[in-house]
Amino acid sequence: MSDGMNRVVLLGNLGADPELRYAGSGTAVLQFRMATNESFLDRNRELTERTEWHSVVVFGPRAEGLARVLAKGSCVLVEGTLRTSSYEKDGQKRYKTEVHARDICLAGGPSPAPAREHAGALRRDVDDDIAPVEMPPPQGEPEDPPEPAPPARPPRKRNGALPRKTEMVEEMPF
What we know:
By secondary structure, the chain is mainly beta. It has a domain at about 10-115: CATH 2.40.50.140. It contains one helix and eight strands. The chain has one helix at about 60-70; strands at about 10-15, 20, 30-40, 45-60, 75-90, 90-105, 115-120, 120. Strands 1-3-4-6-5 form a five-stranded mixed β-barrel. Strands 7-8 form a two-stranded antiparallel sheet. The longest helix is centred in the middle third of the chain and has 9 residues, at about 60-70. The radius of gyration is 28 Å and the shape is extended. The chain starts with 7 loop residues before the first strand and ends in a 52-residue tail after the last strand. Keywords: DNA-binding.
């Protein structure tokens, strides 16, 4: 029997700020809920919108980095796998399905407010204390010069005739 494929690709927005926690082993775990919207015409030919909510989990150092940049409203592209687990609550067996993300890309869109550690204080980035370094010029063979552009064709009128020559009355200094 051949193996199947478990792959999920979602493009949507975070419904709330993500939650960063640490497992007993010290592994970072980032959890967030995201919404995907779908528009379609129903039987009555009316435009209908449907929103689906998804639970997404990210593990490891990537979770810590994403916790600094993601916020409610962030538009993200998530690629991962579906995982279903069960647990007991009040004597009943319950199930939850999550997307275990392998790859997350920021997809642009409206940028949310910057993450805040304290009210009104912006979080400092780890790289803020590193001074910029000037890069040495590249070594080795120089690149080939770019190809010259082909000569421009004179514009044509709709009937195919060339426009008349005009003389420049005044040169513009640049």
